[in-house]
Specification:
Elements lengths: L54 H4 L15 E4 L11 E3 H6 L9 E4 L9 E4 L1 E2 L1 H9 L3 E4 L1
Parallel strand pairs: 1-3, 2-4, 3-5, 4-6
Length: about 140
């Protein structure tokens, strides 16, 4: 492929409806004669079955979702702890103060990056790899 093989974009001309019979899209503007689909705003949902009870309402509801009760952690990585001095006690409040955690809720430490020094970590959750990196740097972990 080189510049001599390139072709321009294929721009399709916009269909100008309602511009006279000779345009091919005049009079009813491609909507046919009368009926709901010919009206302004006359679209029906894909689930509509002409007044018959729709399939998704005929079939019984089944199952249970635990999604509303799922615990969503605020994620902090080991490399982000480099903003703090070595030997600092790392808590959720301190991480919120320096702007690493924006939202409320539990905080989880993940293992991306290397530990800059020995930290005492007091968080809700710590991944196994993050735990081993902090302990290898001489720090300690206390899960709440």
């Amino acid at each position: 492929m080189d510049l001599s093989n390139l072709k321009g974009p294929k721009n399709k001309k916009r269909r100008r409806i309602g511009r006279g019979e000779s345009s091919g899209w005049g009079k009813t503007s491609g909507k046919g004669h009368k009926g709901q689909k010919a009206r302004s705003g006359g679209s029906i949902s894909p689930a509509f079955e002409g007044g018959q009870m729709p399939l998704q309402r005929r079939i019984p509801k089944k199952g249970f979702s635990n999604a509303p009760f799922k615990v969503r952690y605020n994620v902090v990585h080991v490399k982000d702890l480099a903003r703090l001095e070595a030997g600092t006690v790392v808590t959720a409040e301190i991480l919120r103060e320096i702007g690493l955690v924006k939202k409320s809720g539990p905080v989880k430490l993940l293992a991306d990056g290397d530990a800059a020094g020995p930290y005492t970590v007091r968080l809700d959750k710590v991944s196994n790899q993050a735990r081993s990196k902090i302990e290898a740097a001489g720090g300690t972990i206390e899960e709440l």
